[in-house]
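User: Sequence for Glutaredoxin below. Tokens please.
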Amino acid sequence: MSTPVAERIQAQIDANPVMLFMKGTADFPQCGFSARVVQILNHLGVPFKDENVLADPELRDGIKTFSDWPTIPQLYVKGEFVGGCDIVTEMAKSGELQTLFVENGIVSAPV
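Assistant: Structure tokens for Glutaredoxin:
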């Protein structure tokens, strides 16, 4: 059964090729893990939409249920859940994250 918050989350994921649910905003992250993911995305030149879960307690709880993932931040690319800070960091180090963005047409391959 779909809930109103789940429908809101899905609509944001559908509308934004790269969607980051985080604590704070991209301009003012309010936790180190969210700041790290923003830093990685900015370093890779990835345009993304951010949503501050601290501004909406229903969203903060709802995103954890939606993804079946207990922590925030949460990154979605082209509708697929990628992971949180640890996974995003590891993927960035290995080059997997850049490949994911290139394969999905988010960024062009590095020159």
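Residues 7 and 66 are 10 Å apart (CA to CA).
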